[in-house]
Backbone:
C-alpha cells in the first residue's frame, strides 16, 4: 500500500526480512499487517478502521465529503455526486507517499539523511510515517481571492488533519467545492513529539469575532494537549503561540475519543470551549476560556459512570450534552451545568436493555440536531452464554419529544429544513400517527408567517400540509411490491371462436378459485397490518365524502403555498436579472414571461414585485426575447411554472431555479423529487451559475 522506495528494492527487502535469521526481525515483519497487507495464511483485511464526515457544503452538491480509512491503512475521500452513488475522488495515501518519496522521506531540508531501506529500523520508520491513525475535518474557512480584474470573490476551504503512527500530523487544505486532486491547495506536516498517539480532534474557538484553531491530540499513555496550527494562507484565522497541555500525567489510561463543544458561559458572559475525552471508564473534561488575563484552563474527571471502559462517545453540539457507552449496553447522558468558576456534570443512566433487551453496544452517535441517538448493537448473553453468531444492528432512540422538536424548528437560526431533517422526522412521525397538525403548532407557525414572512416558515408549512395529505390518503388494499398473480397470456384454445372443452372450463374455474383465495389471503394480511392507519372503506359512504372534501381542501392549501413560494423565488430571479443586465440585453432567462406570469393573477398585489417589474420592462425597451422550441423553432409561451408547451405540442419541463425550459435529455432533480433543474453550461454568466447552485425552493434539499 505504502510507497517506501523503488518497487524492486522493496521486494528484495521484504524477502530479506522474511527469511532473516534474527527472530526479532523475521517475526515482527511476518506478523505486522502494515508490512504484510496480504497476510498469506492470515485472514484478509477488509472493512474500515475509521471514517469522518466533513461539514455540510464541501462537495459539488453542497453536501458532506466522507474520509474513509480502510483496514489496510488506505485513506480516501468519497462524495455522493449522484443519488445513491458514492464516488472516490482522491487517494490521499498515494499522494502523500509520492510527496515523501520526492523529499527522500525527510520532513524538512535541514533533516539529516537516514539509513538505507535495507535497514529494518528505516523500513519501519518509512511505514510508520505513512500509517494513518485518525483523521478529522475542520470547519469551513472563507477567504477572499483577488481576480485579474481586481474583483474579490469569496473562496471556501476546509482542512483535513491526518494523525500518523509516528505522531506526525499532515494538514491538508482543500478548495471548495472539492472535486478531486486538482482541489488540493497545500499539505503541511507538523511534528508533535507525542508518544503513541491514539486520537485527534480540532479545537476551534471564536473570541471577539476572531477564529482560533488548534489540534487536540490524545495519547495511549494518557496525556492530552492542544497543538498550534499555523494557517498562513487563511486570513482572519489565528492559532496558539505554543502548545497547551490539558492533561500531562502518564497514568496509562488511553484516550479513546475527544470531542470539542463550543458553549456560552452565562456567568462570564463570553464564549468558551468544552473539551471532553474518554479515558478508560472515566470522562476527562477541560473548560477553556479566554479572558483579559489570557487563556484559563479548568479540568477534572467525571468518575463512577461505567464499570467497563467507554467504547464510544458522542456529543450534541446544540446544548453540550455528552453521551457515553460501554459494551454492557449502558449509555450515560452527561449534562454540563455552569458554576461561577467552571462547571459540573449531571448524569443519568439510559439502560438499553429495557428498550432492546439484552444487548452489547459497540458505538453511538447523535443526530445533527440532537433528535436521535443511533446505537450499534449485537445480541447480549442469554442464560449466561454468548451468542454463536453476531448480528450487528443500528437502533435509534428518540432524545426529544415532538413538542421540543417543533419548538426548535420554529426558533431555528439555520432556517433550512434539509439541515434539520432529524427534527422534521419527529414532526412527520407525529402527524402521520395522529392524522392532524396540532393546533399549537399551526397557530405558532401562522404567527411567525404574519410577523416575519420568511420563506423558511412557508416551506415548513408546506412540509406539514404534505405530511397531513399523505396521512389522510387511503392505504392501498394490496402491497405495492407484491407481484400480480393474474395471467396476462391467452391460450389459443381459449380465444373466441375456437370453443372450449369441459376440461378447459374446469381448469379455468379451479385457477380462478385459487387466484381468489390468494388475493383474499393477501388482502386479509394487509387489512390486519394497516387497520389502524387506513381510512374508512368504500362501504362507509357517510364518512367517505367529508374525507374527500378534506383532502381537496388540504390539496388546495398545498397549491396556494407552492404558488406563494414560486412567486417569491420569481421575484429573486427578476432581481438578479435587473442587477446583472444592460438595456435591451437578451438573457437566456424568460424575463418577460416571468413578469407576465406574476402579474396575471388579479388577486396578487405585491408592490415590490410591481415596482421591480416596471424597472425591468423599462430596461427591456419593449423587447420580449421569447424562448424557442429546439425541435420546431416555435415560440415557447410562459403559461405554466412547471412546463413549457409549444404550438406543435412539444413539452419541455421548466427549471425551478431559473424558469428556463430544460431542452436536453439530461437534467437534475431535487433529493425529494419535488422539482427539476437544468445543468449549468459554459456560456452561462456567473450570476446564472450562482442561481443554479441553490437548493430546492420547496423543501431545501440539494439538487442532483
Residues:
Amino acid at each position: 500500500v505504502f510507497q517506501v522506495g523503488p518497487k524492486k528494492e522493496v521486494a528484495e527487502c521484504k524477502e530479506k526480512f522474511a527469511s532473516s535469521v534474527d527472530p526479532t526481525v523475521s517475526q515482527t515483519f511476518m506478523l505486522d499487517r502494515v508490512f504484510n497487507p496480504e497476510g498469506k495464511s492470515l485472514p484478509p483485511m477488509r472493512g474500515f478502521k475509521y471514517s469522518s464526515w466533513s461539514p455540510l457544503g464541501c462537495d459539488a452538491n453542497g453536501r458532506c465529503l466522507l474520509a474513509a480509512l480502510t483496514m489496510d491503512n488506505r485513506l480516501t475521500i468519497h462524495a455522493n455526486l449522484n443519488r445513491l452513488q458514492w464516488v472516490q475522488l482522491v487517494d490521499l495515501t498515494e499522494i502523500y507517499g509520492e510527496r515523501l518519496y520526492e523529499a527522500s522521506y525527510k520532513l524538512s531540508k535541514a533533516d539529516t539523511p537516514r539509513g538505507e531501506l535495507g535497514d529494518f529500523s528505516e523500513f519501519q520508520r518509512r511505514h510508520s510515517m505513512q500509517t494513518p491513525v485518525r483523521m478529522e475535518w475542520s470547519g469551513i474557512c472563507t477567504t477572499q481571492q483577488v481576480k485579474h480584474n481586481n474583483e474579490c470573490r469569496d473562496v471556501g476551504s476546509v482542512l483535513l488533519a491526518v494523525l500518523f503512527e509516528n505522531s506526525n500530523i499532515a494538514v491538508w487544505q482543500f478548495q471548495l467545492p472539492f472535486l478531486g486532486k486538482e482541489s488540493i491547495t497545500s499539505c503541511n506536516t507538523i511534528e508533535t513529539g507525542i508518544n503513541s498517539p491514539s486520537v485527534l480532534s480540532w479545537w476551534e474557538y471564536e473570541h471577539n469575532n476572531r477564529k482560533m484553531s488548534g489540534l487536540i491530540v490524545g495519547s495511549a499513555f494518557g496525556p492530552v494537549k492542544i497543538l498550534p496550527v499555523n494557517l498562513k494562507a487563511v486570513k482572519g484565522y489565528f492559532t496558539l503561540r505554543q502548545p497547551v497541555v490539558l492533561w500531562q500525567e502518564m497514568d496509562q489510561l488511553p484516550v479513546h475519543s475527544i470531542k470539542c463543544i463550543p458553549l456560552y458561559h452565562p456567568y462570564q458572559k463570553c464564549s468558551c470551549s468544552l473539551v471532553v475525552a474518554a479515558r478508560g471508564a472515566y470522562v476527562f473534561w477541560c473548560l477553556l476560556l479566554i479572558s483579559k488575563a489570557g487563556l484559563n484552563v479548568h479540568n477534572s474527571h467525571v468518575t463512577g459512570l461505567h464499570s467497563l471502559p467507554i467504547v464510544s462517545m458522542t456529543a450534541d453540539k446544540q446544548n453540550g450534552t455528552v453521551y457515553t457507552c460501554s459494551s454492557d449496553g449502558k449509555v450515560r447522558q452527561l449534562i454540563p451545568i455552569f458554576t461561577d468558576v467552571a462547571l459540573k456534570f449531571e448524569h443519568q443512566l439510559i439502560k438499553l436493555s429495557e428498550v432492546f433487551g439484552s444487548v452489547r453496544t459497540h458505538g453511538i452517535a447523535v443526530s445533527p440536531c440532537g433528535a436521535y441517538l443511533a446505537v450499534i448493537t449485537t445480541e447480549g448473553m442469554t442464560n449466561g452464554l454468548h451468542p454463536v453468531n453476531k448480528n450487528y444492528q443500528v437502533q435509534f432512540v428518540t432524545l426529544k419529544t415532538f413538542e421540543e422538536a417543533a419548538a426548535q424548528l420554529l426558533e431555528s437560526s439555520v432556517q433550512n429544513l434539509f439541515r434539520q431533517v432529524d427534527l422534521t422526522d419527529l414532526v412527520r412521525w407525529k402527524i402521520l400517527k395522529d392524522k392532524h397538525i396540532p393546533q399549537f403548532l399551526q397557530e405558532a407557525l401562522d404567527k411567525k408567517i404574519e410577523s416575519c414572512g420568511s420563506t423558511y416558515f412557508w416551506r415548513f408549512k408546506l412540509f406539514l400540509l404534505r405530511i397531513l395529505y399523505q396521512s389522510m390518503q387511503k392505504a392501498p388494499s394490496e402491497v405495492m411490491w407484491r407481484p400480480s398473480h393474474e395471467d396476462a397470456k391467452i391460450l389459443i384454445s381459449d380465444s373466441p371462436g375456437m370453443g372450449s372443452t369441459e376440461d378447459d372450463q374446469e381448469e379455468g374455474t379451479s385457477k380462478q378459485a385459487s387466484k381468489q383465495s390468494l388475493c383474499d389471503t393477501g388482502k386479509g394480511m394487509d387489512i390486519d397490518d394497516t387497520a389502524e392507519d387506513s381510512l374508512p372503506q368504500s362501504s362507509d359512504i357517510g364518512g367517505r365524502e367529508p374525507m374527500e372534501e378534506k383532502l381537496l381542501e388540504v390539496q388546495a392549501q398545498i397549491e396556494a403555498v407552492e404558488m406563494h413560494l414560486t412567486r417569491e423565488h420569481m421575484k429573486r430571479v427578476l432581481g438578479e436579472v435587473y442587477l446583472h443586465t444592460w438595456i435591451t440585453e437578451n438573457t437566456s432567462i424568460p424575463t418577460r414571461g416571468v413578469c407576465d406570469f406574476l402579474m396575471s393573477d388579479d388577486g396578487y398585489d405585491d408592490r415590490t414585485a410591481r415596482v421591480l417589474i416596471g424597472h425591468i420592462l423599462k430596461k427591456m425597451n419593449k423587447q420580449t426575447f421569447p424562448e424557442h422550441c429546439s425541435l420546431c423553432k416555435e415560440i415557447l409561451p410562459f403559461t405554466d411554472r412547471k412546463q413549457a408547451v409549444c404550438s406543435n405540442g412539444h413539452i419541455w419541463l421548466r427549471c425551478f431555479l431559473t424558469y428556463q425550459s430544460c431542452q436536453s435529455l439530461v437534467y437534475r432533480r431535487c433529493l425529494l423529487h419535488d422539482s427539476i433543474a437544468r445543468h449549468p453550461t459554459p456560456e452561462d454568466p456567473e450570476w446564472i451559475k450562482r442561481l443554479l447552485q441553490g437548493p430546492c425552493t420547496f423543501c431545501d434539499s440539494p439538487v442532483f
Remarks:
- Residues 487-542 have pLDDT under 50 and may be disordered.
